[in-house]
Amino acid sequence: MSTVIRAAGPDDVEAICTLLHTKMNSKFSIERWSRLMSYPWLDDKPDYGVVVESDGQILGYTGLIYSERMIGDEQRGFRQERFASMSSWYLDKSLRGRGLGKGMLLATMEDTSLTYTIFTNSSKPIGIVKALGYQVLDDRRYHWHKSGDGSSEIIVRQDFNEIFTRATAIQKQILTDMQAMPVTPVHVEFNGRDALLFFSIKTKGEDVLWFDLLYTSDAALFTDSAPWLTNALLPDTPAVLAADSRLIDTPPEGTLCEYLPVERHYLSQNVEPRDIDFLYSELQLLDLKLD
Fold first, then answer.
1. Which pLDDT score, from 0 to 100, does residue 148 have?
2. Which one of 1, 13, 89, 252 counts the least CB within 10 Å of its CB?
């Protein structure tokens, strides 16, 4: 039996999507799986991740979703970095126990100039990715619940065109890239400052609507405005505003905090956790819940 681990290319897309649909999760259609290979924000994709090919048949896949991002802030300045978000680690049962799963992961980590992220809500791969050098990106998140009427001190805008006209050049690129994705942009003005936010809004648990923060252009502003933003943005029905700890500044004492069901992980020589958000990942492409 001839078995190789190699880069995934355009000719592999149909076989990859069929494998993921039939073996990994049949609830996701082949078309839905194909979004991992057809994302619009980067024309020059180095590859689609790696595959395990055995006797001409693709029986394993680890996806990589690439993006080029401007990171930083007004105080530190901005610079461009390239990211790779890992997705859909799967190996056919007939090939397990031979080191091929680990081999796929190692093959995705070869370019040390990249920042790699793993946002899975499954604990299965965590032990092995830690052993390969991935570090904990975040292990906690904070919650805010609606406590009264919205404050006149905060202005919240949700109309895309209005948000776009107020955005910086960097923010306009993110808005354009995310326009067709299942995310909600919000522009906030508070205490003479403004910020662009992106949320994933999903129902979880017992019909509780979660507004998960995916991105903020100003962590300090979000932290300062969170109680007022919660009152202005959330409905009167059960709902939660939530943010991973790295995306905010130190919250006021008494802010609800919990440990994440599964830690987030990253691998980088160039980028700090505070500059790693959730955009440009499988979360948008597959329309997944954060947890």
1. 77
2. 1
Q: Which of 290, 5, 278, 248 is nearest to 120 (CA)?
A: 290
CA dihedral over 192, 198, 203, 204, signed as positive or negative = negative
Residue 211's DSSP bridge partners are 201, 241
User: What HEC string does the chain produce?
Assistant: CCEEEEECCHHHHHHHHHHHHHHHCCCCCHHHHHCCCCCCCCCCCCCCEEEEEECCEEEEEEEEEEEEEEEEECCCEEEEEEEEEEEEEEECHHHCCCCHHHHHHHHHCCCCCCEEEECCCCCCCHHHHHHCCCEEEEEEEEEECCCCCCCCCEEEECCHHHHHHHCCHHHHHHHHHHCCCCCEEEEEEECCEEEEEEEEEEEECCCEEEEEEEEECCHHHHHHHHHHHHHHHCCCCCEEEEEEHHHCCCCCCCCEEEEEEEEEEEECCCCCHHHCCCCCCHHHHCCCCCC
State residue 38's pLDDT score: 96
Q: What is the pTM of this model?
A: 0.95
In this predicted model, what pLDDT tens digit does every residue of 209-267 receive, in sequence order?
999 999 999 999 999 999 999 999 999 999 999 999 999 999 988 999 999 999 999 99
Cα end-to-end distance, the chain, whole Å: 39
